[in-house]
Design brief:
Shape: globular
Helix content: 55-70%
Strand order of the largest sheet: 4-3-5-1-6-7-2-8
Distance between the termini: 21 Å
Number of helices: 38
């Protein structure tokens, strides 16, 4: 940018930095709006507790196989690809199902992670989805649980799960035995973690023979034993659930269940123990979980022992479907439950007070379907348990209803429970009690079941009471943000205003905000509500104050009228493109089709079509390369997300990294020597040599580590140290061995090689090849855009002087309709950087195998950091290219970002309205993920632009004739253009001749 442009920018009333800061705060705050709108916390306090009058069992044993899929436990021959695999993987659990227990599927909710799953099983409540972001070790909110209502709970297992149920419980009621976190080593046999639990259980009962106090505790009523078996989860992550290791871990769990029952029976010598076996979540075929895929949400449930019915014949219509046909259990009744229902079942079995936050429904409440309780208990007992279930749900409703009615203006109660002078819910409870007193057990259960459904409906009504208001605020906020962003493009305050907005219009947003704040204060609304209103009030106030007068001037109205047809077409095309981007979140093939569309998008502009007509064989090379790279980009989204580790592709990627560096280095160094002299060239040559060497070393180390883990030889300490060294040192090399002067191409090559080790050591197969193709396509995009806009830079470089180009940037950024196309292409590359090798449908598309080459011990924070580093690497290259594009096209910094900011929130609003809190867990999980991704798009875009401008400062722009010479492979032609004058368009660089 010229000095004049700099001075003009300094006097401007618009600071891009201020816009980015406000936008950052806005999008961070409004990410939370999806939780306030759709997933408010279910936890309230002040409820009474209820329990059945008698206990059916003296004690309960809960065994959770962490990460166990239902199909792989129940299926006959579930591992057909494993040689000599048995037909029945878990014979002991199978015998329980067939001879003395009840079974079915426990359907979990998203997120399918260990903590929310255990909260549902033991607390009977579905934890607020947003609470997952508040820490994994302990619960962010105190809630009641079955453990807290027991006389004593003896828990054994992982340190990640056990402490969360001791917190908030009566002191000394929940006892824990957990191994060290370092024992969760993904390179070791995780079965040992499960046998550790069994050893501690055996030791507990062995010690009880010599410890009278412990023996007395064990013989109390309402005792609970909790065995958390983490081995399956660790094994599934390490080897995937269809592996021999996972199969053997299931067999080990089966043996542990058998031995645990033997220990219990030997110690007590009675038949007063109930057993429940289940899982917190399942696992995807690639060894991950977290999303709403059925493989993650369907977990086994088996109950047996005191108070539990035996197997029943199947019903008509059948309780089975295509999913359970391979089980070979079609002759037995399958009873599915929601995961929170398990807490209600356990409370009923031991006669404990039900967790006060539980929303679980006892499976036996429905009189038309068999449940899990033994019919021998008597219909009266089951009917009374159903009444307790209804009272517990309605008690939560009562507390929430009273809180809402006291603090909400113009409160409208839930008519199904509150109509009449005496609340309908009270009348219905009295009706159920009268039916029980009249020995009408079936009718009492049916009435309780109806009341429970209405109570759950009332809870949902109260939790979503403010949804319409919040949706309205969020809509006005995002539209206001897009209008506010547009002010930084049209910059009305930098131009003489002709009309003034009426004062009443100016103060309307402020008055609206004040009224909303007053209502929120009276209603004691969450503090976040105040921010939700503040942002749209500010955005709309600024647009009404600045944008409306500017757009109302006669000159602008005439201009808009003349270009109405063209602008309308551009608007329709832009909205269609944004809809296409949104569709790509669920259909990855869209990104392949998008690559073809992007490759031809420049034909939409007149300058592009003119360039094609006047194109020579020399000037066609960048366009042909652009098409070739676009074709390669088509392939990667078509590669299945469920990939296996492939050392061949990893090694191929490493070698191509080295080959690209070997080819590009002489071209880049020749340009550096021409611009800055031989000394600078020699310094860069040393850096490039070290980077190329590191690429070869990290490729060899990665292949060795991968094969060592595949062959189960573990990861030696020396290999781990070497891997860390080869990842960290080359990554920081571009920043520690700095040279004072760079060309654009020299910096591009430097950062490209800096990220090469990341995409080698953290790859599972084709990620390295994708990064190479992606980076090359970005570079070719810039080349093509500049040649089409300034064809004279290629045909007659000497005729393009600084004066002509500088004149285009004086006075700040001037909006061009063609910039919309480039902004959309930029947004496409933002998405392609993720979708090219991943799947936004869930976090399950991230593989953990590459992380084990660096961190074999379970460490969520460190593993996530490495995965994020790999995820962000393509975006750093995109940030550099974006800065290069702004400079090459003589646009001020952040120009294309400003255009994209005015469009990207269209997708955010679309996904906000598509968020679901009902339906299948797959639909719920995907809808949340989509909103997160679209909201974070601004943070990615803004951060990338700022980072790119910083990384590319003080550079002399690469001349396009140099690039074409490189494309032709004629390195010798570099000297032929050395007499041309360098063009510095970065706005902060130093003229090359002066540097010489």
């Amino acid at each position: 940018m010229s000095p004049a442009a700099k001075n003009g920018a300094a006097k401007s009333n618009y600071s891009v930095g201020r816009l980015l800061f406000i936008g950052l705060l806005f999008h961070i705050v409004f990410i939370g709006s999806v939780f306030d709108c759709y997933f408010t916390s279910p936890v309230v306090h002040g409820m009474k507790s209820f329990q059945t009058q008698q206990a059916e069992a003296k004690r309960l044993v809960l065994i959770v196989g962490d990460g166990l899929r239902a199909d792989l436990l129940f299926n006959e021959n579930p591992f057909p690809k494993i040689r000599d695999s048995p037909k029945i993987i878990a014979p002991y659990l199978r015998s329980i199902v067939e001879t003395r227990g009840a079974f079915g599927i426990s359907h979990t909710r998203v997120p399918t992670e260990s903590r929310p799953g255990h909260v549902a099983i033991i607390g009977g409540m579905y934890e607020d989805v947003s609470a997952v972001t508040k820490g994994w070790k302990t619960n962010p909110v105190d809630f009641d649980s079955v453990f807290n209502q027991s006389s004593t709970t003896f828990s054994f297992g992982s340190p990640d799960i056990l402490p969360m149920f001791a917190r908030g419980a009566v002191p000394g009621r929940v006892l824990e035995w957990s191994y060290d976190a370092e024992e969760e080593d993904f390179t070791k046999d995780a079965v040992e973690l499960d046998y550790w639990v069994l050893d501690k259980v055996e030791a507990l009962f062995r010690n009880a023979t010599t410890d009278p106090m412990l023996k007395a505790k064990l013989h109390q009523g309402k005792v609970v034993f909790f065995l958390h078996l983490l081995g399956l989860d660790v094994t599934g992550h390490s080897y995937r659930p269809h592996s021999p290791e996972y199969m053997r871990n299931i067999q080990a769990v089966d043996k542990i269940v058998k031995r645990t029952e033997e220990i219990i029976n030997e110690f007590y010598g009675d038949k007063e123990t109930s057993f429940v076996f289940t899982a917190d979540h399942g696992m995807s075929v690639i060894g991950n979980h977290g999303d709403g895929h059925p493989d993650c949400t369907r977990t086994p449930l088996i109950a047996w022992g005191k108070g539990v019915r035996g197997p029943l014949p199947d019903t008509t219509p059948s309780s089975h479907d295509d999913y359970s046909k391979p089980w070979g259990l079609n002759h037995l009744y399958r009873r599915d439950v929601e995961q929170a229902d398990i807490a209600a079942l356990m409370s009923a079995l031991i006669g404990a007070s039900w967790p006060v936050n539980s929303v679980g429904v006892l499976p036996d409440v429905d009189p038309n379907r068999p449940g899990y309780l033994d019919p021998k208990l008597g219909e009266k007992t089951i009917a009374e348990a159903a009444l307790v279930n209804a009272k517990m749900i309605l008690e939560q409703y009562r507390v929430k209803h009273e809180l809402k009615s006291v603090h909400t203006l113009f409160y409208k109660p839930y008519s199904s429970l509150e109509s009449g002078s005496v609340p309908k819910r009270i009348q219905q409870l009295e009706h159920v009690e009268s039916l029980i007193n009249a020995s009408q057990w079936h009718g009492a259960r049916d009435a309780s079941y109806t009341l429970i459904k209405e109570g759950l409906g009332g809870l949902h009504y109260l939790q979503t009471y403010d949804r319409t208001l919040l949706r309205t605020i969020v809509t006005f906020a995002h539209i206001g943000w897009m209008l506010y962003s547009s002010l930084y493009i049209i910059r009305p305050l930098d131009k003489p205003a002709v009309l003034n907005t009426k004062r009443t219009m100016k103060i309307l947003p402020l008055v609206t905000a004040i009224v909303c704040w007053a209502v929120f204060f009276v209603q004691r609304s969450p503090w976040s509500y105040y921010f939700y209103v503040s942002f749209p009030a500010y955005f709309w106030f600024q647009f009404i104050r600045q944008g409306v007068p500017y757009l109302s001037t006669p000159a602008i109205r005439v201009r808009l009228g003349r270009g109405l047809r063209e602008n309308l077409v551009q608007t329709v095309l832009a909205l269609s493109a944004l809809l296409g981007l949104a569709l790509g979140y669920t259909h990855r093939v869209v990104w392949s089709l998008g690559s073809l569309v992007v490759a031809n998008s420049w034909m939409l502009e007149k300058s592009g079509r003119t360039y094609v007509r006047q194109m020579t064989s020399r000037s066609a090379i960048p366009i042909l390369l652009w098409y070739a790279l676009g074709g390669l980009c088509v392939l990667f989204p078509l590669v299945p997300v469920n990939r296996s580790e492939n050392t061949f592709f990893i090694a191929m990627g490493g070698l191509i990294f080295w080959g690209v560096a070997q080819y590009a280095q002489p071209i880049v160094l020749a340009e550096v020597e021409r611009e800055f002299g031989k000394d600078m060239k020699d310094k860069l040559r040393v850096k490039y040599t070290l980077q190329k060497l590191s690429v070869l070393l990290v490729t060899a180390a990665t292949v060795y580590s991968s094969l060592s883990l595949q062959w189960k030889l573990g990861l030696p300490l020396i290999a781990r140290i070497l891997n860390w060294t080869l990842l960290v040192v080359p990554s920081i090399l571009p920043y520690i061995m700095t040279t004072p002067h760079h060309t654009t191409s020299s910096k591009l090559l430097m950062y490209f090689l800096g990220f090469a080790p990341c995409f080698i050591i953290l790859s599972i197969s084709v990620e390295g090849l994708f990064f190479i193709t992606y980076s090359a396509a970005l570079l070719c995009w810039v080349v093509s855009e500049k040649i089409m806009r300034y064809p004279e830079t290629l045909q007659h470089p000497s005729s393009v002087n600084g004066k002509v180009l500088k004149g285009k940037s004086e006075g700040g950024y001037v909006f061009n309709v063609g910039d919309v196309r480039m902004a959309l292409v930029f947004l496409f590359f933002v998405h392609l950087g993720f979708f090219g090798i991943g799947n936004v449908a869930s976090i399950s598309s991230f593989y953990l195998e590459p992380v084990y080459r660096l961190i074999p011990v379970f460490s969520p924070f460190s593993m996530t950091t490495l995965l994020l580093y790999k995820l962000l690497a393509p975006y750093v290259m995109l940030s550099i290219i974006l800065a290069y594009l702004n400079h090459a096209l003589q646009l001020p910094p952040f120009s294309l970002l400003l255009v994209s900011l005015c469009m990207s929130d269209v997708m955010t609003l679309m996904f906000f309205y598509r968020v679901r809190d009902t339906g299948s867990w797959l639909q719920i999980g995907e809808s949340i993920t989509f909103f997160f991704m679209s909201s974070l798009l601004f943070l990615f875009s803004a951060g990338m632009s700022a980072l790119g401008e910083w990384l590319m400062k003080d550079t002399v722009e690469t001349r396009f004739e140099m690039l074409v010479a490189g494309f032709e492979g004629a390195v010798g032609k570099v000297k032929a253009v050395e007499n041309g004058s360098g063009i510095n368009t970065s706005g902060v660089g130093v003229n090359s001749k002066k540097k010489k």
